């Protein structure tokens, strides 16, 4: 295989991978430009195996979107709605609690909860969501509110980001999901989500959370109008931030779904680009412990293959996924843990059911 990698022009990357040296920006670009997906997969798999062995993680989780009302209305998003839209929705704290209660018989260890930037809901509503969930499911880990929502909540609370995070933590917040990062490039943000907070602010909030002991994830929305250089700039900014705080748990590349968005003329991402984003992320983000293949966006079949291209995590059962499905995702809205275990085993990996912080709940041998 080593000759194959040299023939693919990636010999110098192989040497760096073997000697655990950090890849440069231009090497990252070379990986993105390579059409040799097998060479990329082989290299990424070396790193993945070194970090995570044969393990592939999944979690028993439940997604809850408390509201799609949003003032940002990003061009790539089919979920957000103006408050006067017929399709706008907003759940009361009681309704969110009921969603949790409805699944109390299932071994859910994480609630993943995000929503739009709502123009009217007060700060107390968000504290109420966290307290309400903890009231009915005290042991559950709540991974909620992207850095974009945290910036908004800090404004509502009239406090600093760290003061706001403290209050949210007291109410039950366990960690932050990785959404809202999109592509950090100011050019891309100007063209696709001009009202959203800047990439720099997103990173500052993530780092503030880390310094307060809150772990977070990070994402990149790829496959629309971003250049390969802009992808690499995004990954570089994440790698630099992680060097400072070591608070990111996982990186999740998010494949753009164009349907029902203001960018619906664009095509869906290809399988090759999906695998490439997983592999390049694994190789470039040398300080990220986990790379997730999010089956909702790339499909369970490709997510399974991604376990041989650098990914070590398939996310989880998810239950009612809404954000990607409003943008035309054809995957199911939930997946059974048995299916996840089967997919992982068939890929030659050991399925490890984890909690949010990657503590092992059960190894499914
Ligand atoms: O923030 C919006 C993106 C994110 C579209 O942290 C779209 O473990 C594709 O962040 N096509 C929400 N993507 C999902 C997310 C996530 C999912 C799973 C796990 C984790 C984690 C995080 O989805 C949004 C936005 O970046 N998004 N519209 C679209 N049309």
Protein architecture, described:
The protein has 365 residues and is α/β, with parallel strands linked by helices. It has one domain (54-363): Alpha-Beta Barrel (TIM Barrel), CATH 3.20.20. 44% of the residues lie in helices and 15% in strands. The chain has helices spanning 2-7, 11-18, 25-33, 37-52, 93-101, 123-136, 147-157, 161-171, 186-192, 199-211, 228-245, 271-284, 295-298, 300-306, 323-326, 337-346, and strands at residues 55-59, 61-65, 110-114, 141-144, 173-176, 215-222, 248-255, 290-291, 313-316, 350-354, 360-363. The chain has a seven-stranded parallel beta sheet. Strands 9-1-10-11 form a four-stranded mixed beta sheet, with helices on one face. Helix 6 (123-136) links the parallel strand 3 (110-114) and strand 4 (141-144). Helix 7 crosses helix 10 (199-211). The chain is globular. The two termini are 29 Å apart. Bound molecules: ligand V47. The site of ligand V47 has 22 residues, from strand 6, strand 7 and helix 15.
Structure, briefly:
The protein has about 375 residues and is α/β, with parallel strands linked by helices. It has helices spanning about 1-5, 10-20, 25-35, 35-50, 95-100, 125-135, 145-155, 160-170, 185-190, 200-210, 230-245, 270-285, 295-300, 300-305, 325, 335-345, and strands spanning about 55-60, 60-65, 110-115, 140-145, 175, 215-220, 250-255, 290, 315, 350-355, 360-365. It contains 16 helices and eleven strands.
């Amino acid at each position: 295989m080593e000759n194959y990698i040299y023939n693919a022009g990636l010999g110098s990357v192989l040497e760096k991978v073997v000697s655990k040296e950090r890849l440069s920006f231009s090497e990252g670009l070379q990986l993105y430009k390579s059409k040799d997906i097998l060479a990329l997969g082989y290299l990424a798999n070396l790193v993945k195996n070194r970090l995570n062995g044969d393990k592939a993680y999944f979690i028993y989780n439940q997604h809850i979107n408390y509201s799609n009302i949003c003032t940002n209305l990003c061009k790539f998003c089919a979920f957000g709605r103006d408050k006067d839209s017929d399709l706008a929705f907003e759940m009361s704290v009681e309704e969110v609690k009921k969603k949790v209660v409805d699944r109390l018989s299932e071994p859910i260890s994480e609630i993943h909860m995000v929503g739009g930037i709502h123009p009217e809901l007060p700060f107390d509503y968000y504290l109420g969501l966290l307290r309400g969930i903890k009231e009915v499911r005290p042991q559950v880990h709540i991974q909620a509110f992207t850095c974009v929502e945290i910036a908004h909540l800090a404004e509502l609370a009239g406090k600093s980001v760290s003061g706001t995070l403290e209050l949210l933590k007291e109410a039950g917040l366990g960690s932050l999901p990785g959404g809202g990062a999109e592509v950090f490039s100011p050019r891309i943000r100007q063209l696709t989500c001009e009202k959203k907070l800047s990439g720099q602010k997103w990173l500052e909030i993530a780092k503030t959370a880390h310094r307060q002991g809150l772990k977070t994830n990070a994402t990149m929305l790829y496959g629309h109008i971003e250049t390969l250089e802009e992808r690499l700039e995004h990954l570089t900014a994440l790698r630099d931030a992680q060097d400072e705080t070591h608070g990111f748990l996982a990186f999740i590349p998010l494949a753009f779904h164009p349907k029902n968005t203001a960018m619906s003329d664009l095509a869906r991402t290809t399988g090759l680009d999906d695998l490439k984003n997983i592999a390049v992320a694994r190789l470039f983000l040398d300080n990220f412990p986990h790379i997730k293949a999010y089956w909702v966006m790339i499909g369970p079949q490709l997510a399974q293959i991604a376990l041989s291209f650098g990914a070590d995590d398939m996310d989880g059962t998810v239950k009612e996924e809404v954000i990607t499905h409003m943008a035309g995702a054809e995957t199911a809205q939930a997946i059974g843990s048995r299916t996840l275990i089967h997919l992982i085993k068939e890929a030659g990996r050991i399925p490890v059911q984890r909690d949010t912080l990657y503590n092992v709940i059960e190894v499914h041998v």
